[in-house]
Amino acid sequence: MTEPSFREQLRQRLERDRLEESQYRELEQMMSDASDTGTAKKGLSRRSFLTGLATAAGLAAVGIGAWNMQQSGPLGPETLSAEVLRNHQWLKPLDLTTQRFDQLAGYFTEGLDFELVPSQRIIDEQLTLEGGRYCSLGGIKAAQIVFRNAEGEMVTHYQTRYDPEAVKPVPRVDESETPIVMIRDEHRITLWRERGILMATAQRV
Predict the structure, then answer these.
(1) Which of 22, 153, 159, 196 has the maximum number of C-beta atoms within 10 A of its C-beta?
(2) pTM above the 0.70 mark?
(3) Pairing between strand 197-204 and 128-137?
């Protein structure tokens, strides 16, 4: 399979960043002019090259900013599950190592505006606690709690304050609603609300 040209790769990248068509055309024309000049003069000057990069970066920033504006409003399961998976896969050192949940909950008391609660779903799975650290979920400060299952595989659990203005409705398991389960990159992501707290887990399938 032929590898896409630099121009095609740039088009795909800018389309992902949601640039307006007029912005892309402006950048494409600039590249075309630069290419023609380069053929005649055997390369762009350093100043022209840097100017081109700055223009491209500026256009990309505009596109990304517009995309972020379009994403304003409550976050849905797709966005939340992507954040959970990112936290799971890029695990940072734990802030506290302990096998006692009450000790872990006490540690997070000062940093969170709610108290961690032992989820019945976690209790039912009989996981072994390893510790926890601060992270974010839905743009809200959260606790990432690390467990191991009977096979020694890592399971990460997340708790944060549920804010209906930041996150779309999530099933409430304490009212017999079924959690949201999604498979992303060979991981099972589960989202639910319990006792007023937004919760999630991630583990490899």
Answers:
(1) 159
(2) no
(3) unpaired
Query: Which own/partner pairs from 146-154 qualify as long-range (CB within 8 Å, at least 24 positions apart)?
Result: 146/91, 146/94, 147/122, 149/125, 149/203, 150/126, 153/203, 153/204, 154/88, 154/91, 154/203, 154/204
Helix, strand or coil for residue 10?
A: helix
As a whole number of angstroms, the longest Cα–Cα distance in the chain is 72
Instruction: State pLDDT tens for residues 172-187.
Output: 999 999 999 999 999 9
Residue 43 φ/ψ region, left for φ over 0, alpha for ψ in the -120 to 50 degree band, beta for the rest: left
What are the extents of the domains in the chain? 6-70, 77-204
Burial of 194 (0-12, 13-18, 19+ CB in 10 A): buried
Chain segment 47-70, per-residue pLDDT in tens: 554 445 444 544 444 444 334 434
DSSP-based three-state secondary structure for 20: coil
